[in-house]
Amino acid sequence: MSASALRTLLKTARYEVLPTAGIVDRISEHVVPGRTITVTASTGLSLEATLSTAEQLQALGYTAVPHIAARMVQGRTELEEILDRLGHAGIDTIFVPAGDATPPAGGYAGALDLLVDLTSMAPPITQIGVSAYPESHPIIPDDVTVQAMWDKRDYATQIVSNLCFDPGIVSTWLARVRARGIELPLILGIAGKVELAKLAKVAAKIGVGESTRFLRKNTATFTRMAKPGGYNPRKFLDRLSPVLDDPYMGIGGLHIYTFNQVKDTEAWRRKQLELLGDPDPTSVVS
After folding, report:
1. How many CA atoms within 13 Å lie on the side-chain side of 155?
2. Alpha helices (H) in the chain, listed in sequence order
3. Bridge partners for 17 per DSSP
4. Alpha-carbon torsion 173, 96, 21, 52, what sign?
5. pLDDT tens across 153-197, in order?
6. CB 60 within 8 A of CB 93
7. Which family does the UniProt entry place this protein in (predicted)?
8. Are 106 and 73 in contact, with CB atoms under 8 Å apart?
9. Across the beta sheet with 93-96, what order do the strands follow?
10. Which pTM value belongs to this model?
């Protein structure tokens, strides 16, 4: 992969955070405004926490992308209220996962149901991301996730891949996605430079039940991080060079899962840019 292409991916990389107390302050301390920050939605922290955090970040000059988890939305009326709120905040990009709420809060059993309603409302949303799973989902069968991506392709503007630590699996999966005729740009999900002890602290902050789900869903992260030299995000990207360089694969950017380790993740990103000869690793590419 060319140095200039990798620089662009790192300059435009967006961060995913959980809306825990103090996260806005940490972002504003370590990340320059203008960057894209996505805010997760979880039953342990509430959809209100997601929306409030996104509003604060948008007001500070970041491009905030709230996760509107379909199974946490009570129905069309609440969705309309959410869209009105986002419009007033100047937020025009969202990410729509199904979410883990069991049972669903209202009339949306999955992301597709919400996306259909969303389209009929003509909201002030210009960019919509949906989930993609290079590896098996811990709960949903593979054939269901494949069909779901196909069903959602006409309602979204981009797909965002879940964590995977095997470049070979990512490459094979993405080739299959393109062969099926799904042409949406892919925002490639990767884990940032995180520490095990800090991951456990994040899990402890999001409620007992939610923490259990968090740990189960991120078992691979813990396993890889526990091995000496088991995971290095730069090596991961380097091994994916053929895919990242291939226009047919349609890699539109990086989505870095920070697990709220914003300082460490940003320090890693800036170091990589400096190694690539970037004269100003803090600048933002629009």
Report:
1. 24
2. 3-12, 23-30, 47-59, 76-89, 111-120, 142-152, 167-179, 196-205, 208-217, 219-226, 233-239, 241-245, 262-275
3. 39
4. positive
5. 899 999 999 888 889 999 999 999 999 899 999 999 998 877 666
6. no
7. Belongs to the methylenetetrahydrofolate reductase family.
8. yes
9. 63-66, 36-39, 14-17, 251-257, 186-191, 158-161, 127-132, 93-96
10. 0.88
